[in-house]
Design brief:
This protein is mainly α. It has 8 helices and no strands. The longest helix is centred in the middle third of the chain and has 26 residues.
């Protein structure tokens, strides 16, 4: 039996079965298509074509029911994304800032001596020159001079990156 003949012969059964399982998470047209696919699969599975009608009538509802459950699961798990805000959700701005800060600190560690690194890190943390002077037991003018040297060392590194 040709596929077109098989579909034409069992079309009422497929549509009735699809109608029975409509509303369980799948649309009627989707279930009809699944029923047609199941019909073709069952035709291949049936060893004795004399019993094809009984075989299809008994197995087709199971295929359509399974398709309805599968489609219901797909609809339930589907999240519709607003593509304008997806990038904002994928990359957290605070995470970007944290990674940038870590990258800057790594560059500072490579380019500066340990004492200079500590001074630069504290300045980045918001310490004033007078606070740094008190912490390091030096004058504010000495802190200013050291920060000027640090800036001179780092200026080529950060200007090349921009």
């Amino acid at each position: 039996m040709m596929k077109e003949e098989l579909i034409a012969k069992y079309e009422p059964l497929v549509k009735a079965t699809a109608k029975r399982y409509t509303g369980r998470g799948a649309e009627y047209e989707d279930l009809v298509q699944e029923g047609y696919l199941a019909l073709l699969i069952l035709n291949e599975k049936c060893a004795d074509k004399e019993w094809l009608t009984a075989f299809i009538a008994s197995r087709l509802p199971g295929y359509v029911r399974a398709a309805a459950e599968r489609l219901r699961g797909l609809r339930r798990k589907t999240n519709f994304a607003d593509f304008d805000t997806v990038a904002d959700r994928l990359i957290d701005p605070s995470e970007v800032e944290r990674r940038l800060l870590i990258e800057i600190l790594e560059i500072l560690k490579k380019k500066l001596r340990p004492g200079e690194f500590i001074l630069a890190r504290d300045a980045m943390d918001g310490w004033t020159q007078s606070d740094l002077a008190g912490k390091n037991n030096i004058t504010q003018q000495a802190v200013c001079a050291r920060l000027k040297k640090i800036r001179a060392k780092l200026e080529p590194v950060f200007l090349d990156r921009s």
